[in-house]
Amino acid sequence: MRVNTLKPIIECVINPFLSADREAPSYANFDQFKAVKSFHQSLPGYFPTPLVNLGELASMLGIDALMVKDESWRFDLKAFKVLGASYAIAKEIKQHLGLEEKELSFDAIASHKSALKALTFVTATDGNHGRAVAWCAEKFGCKAVVFMPNGTSEFRLEAIKSHGAHAEITKLNYDETVVFSTQKAKENDWILLQDSSWEGYTTVPKHIMQGYFSLVSEFEDQTVTWPTHVLAQAGVGSFAASIFSYFLARQKPTPKLILVEPTGAACFFNSIQIGDGKPHLTKELDTMMAGLSCGQPSILAWNIIKPNCDAFVICNDQLAKKGMQLLANPIGNDAVVVSGESGAVPIGLVDEICTNQKYSLIKERLKFDGHSKILIFSTEGDTDPKVYKQHSRIIAS
Fold it and tell me: The pTM is what?
């Protein structure tokens, strides 16, 4: 079944800064992948999220395989963010309590409940990261304070509060809320747990990025199919940089690494277009993709993505809606995937590039063809059910 959409718009730029000798950062290696995986397996309720093969959609699009890692099943949070938050919180607790590296497991940390009560973690979030921090603090017995940008839905706010955290919506945009949270951390001697990085603040975001390695560790355990293309969404870029780093570190052919951003919050695309090789702030943010509505690239992510990403692609909100509809209303025997706007956008993008003659040049540049095995991460489920219900239904032609 085809989806009727309103003027999808796509732009693509091949990376002018691509290095001839691409490599992963030093903190992305086999031992680290193994350590992160072991920690996550210690968490209560852990199980790998499904890898869904959309064979019939792939066939219709003229590609060999379309694989979707479905994060709507991640614990009871319906989003991948908990992988980074849990590992970073565990590393911070380890440091504060003077624990050994071998004690980096849920049971070992939770056994220090009396000491953990004194720790407060604070973060800025559009929703999923903040809920992950609140969930982890609740599980470990710490406190959490979460600040959210203007325009955040009440549902996302209440979801965070349900884990016992103090949460409030500010009158600031996302990047301003990050600054505000940083100030509050200093004033109150709280631990800042932000999934972005800047000069002087890299340790926690590095640990968050390492936590995301489990997404690809699970993928490798679930299939023998090695992708030719990996698409990753970017807000501040931590998730995409982590996923790309994993593939760069493996002793296998490196897939084409493609960064996907909303047109209305394209801080990486815009920075690449400026052409000076530096990250730049995108001040005006305008997208329904709440999880990707960020204006300032993380410096750690920038330093990985700039020399290693093959292409930067932006698209408007119509393709996020299209992706939600395609995943909610699958073709033939393909499985249903419940995917929110930030999770579904790569599906809408691939479909549009493969089916709209207008984008044949982009299709050629990205080498989407009958040999393509494309891996996509649906990073969230219906984390805002009202938005999901509104946009996941097929629109009648």
Answer: 0.95
